[in-house]
Each structure stands twice: as structure tokens, then as C-alpha cells.
Prior knowledge:
It contains 8 helices and 2 strands. It is mainly alpha-helical. The protein has a two-stranded parallel ribbon with strand order 1-2.
Amino acid sequence: MTRLPVPKRRGEMIGRAYFAVQAAAGALWWLGVFTLPQIREATLGGLDPVLVAAFDIPLFVVASGLAAAAMLPAAWATAAWSACVTLGLVLYATATAEAGWGALTMMAATGGSVTAAFLVHTGRLPTERILFGPFAFQLARPASAARNAARTGAQIVVLWGLALGVAPAIIAVVERRWQLSLVLPGGWADWVRIAGVTVFIVASALGLWSAASMSTRGAGTPCPLRWRDNSL
């Protein structure tokens, strides 16, 4: 019997462990669905739990357990089913304002299932397939500090605009539509806002500092996805 390399074997074990935890969590969730109306309403809304369970228990709970036993087809079946359920719940929650927590949970489960399936299959994540096109690492062309600073500034405007403007706006709309807001007791809301502002200021300062360092002292590196071969 051929032994797998240690890194690949470790990655496979991590993937199988995830599927084992997911199988247990899925079983507990279905137990809650059939015993606690609050869980059923928050995660399934008006959907028929018996009908959903008829497909989800074998394709998610049982398949996750089989994937934990290193059955690769079960791992990919779980990932595919999770993606289909996520899409269905996202559309359902958006149309009806119900089952928002179910959609959010299945989004996380889909990401975890796909990641674990790759780990079970290859023992690693195919990062070379994830970083492509404008997101691929590439050799930076030599340029002046002023040009690199201009490129870094454009990157900051675009990425921060998307991350701090567009994305939060979309998240806020989804939270309201899916009824995901949490009411904090007492004055905790004010403390959360203060903590958020503090983290934002500190992180922004570090980000601007690192951007300035990369553009002026980074040997031609205007952004993290570009690198410079100093041996040239």
C-alpha cells in the first residue's frame, strides 16, 4: 500500500475531519428543526421540513459522514448539493424575507464543503486555479516611486471603494431583507460602534503605511499581487 506524502495526508485528514463535524452539525440541526419551531422558522421559513429533509439528510448529513470516511464521490456530492441548497435558499430568502439564517448558514457550509472536498481529493487547495486573470501574481515592471505610488493610490481607491462602500451597502440590504439583524442589550451597541471605528482607524493607518512602504521602498512592487525579482 502506497503511503501518501505527509502534507497531502495531513490535508486529507483535515478535510475528512471537517466533513465529520459537518455531518454531526447537520444531524443536530435537523433535530432542532423538528423539535424547535424557532429554528425551523429561522432557517427554513415556510418550506416543508419533511420534503426538504427527504433530500438534505441523505445528500448532506449522510454524504458528509461518508466523505469523512474518505469516500471522494460523497465529498463532491455534498459540495454540489450544498451549492444547490444555498442558491435555492438565497432566492427564497430574498423573495420572501424568510429563512435568512438558513441561507447564511448554507453559504458557509458550501464554502467549507468545497474546501474540504479539495483537501480530501488532493490534500491541498488549488490556489493556482483561484488566482488568475487580474488576481494572478505577476512580475512587476520596474518603475519610479512616483509611478508606483500612483498605482497604489488607484488600487486603494478601487479596492477600498468596493470593500468599504459597495460591499457594506449590499450586506446592509441583505441583512434587512433576510432579517439577520441582532438587537444588542443595553449599551452594547454603542460599544460595538466604538470598537468598529477604532479597528477601522487602526487598520486603515496600517494599510496606508504598508502601501506607502511598498510603493516607495518595494523595489518596483506597487501592490501585493505584483512582486519584483531582485536577482534581475
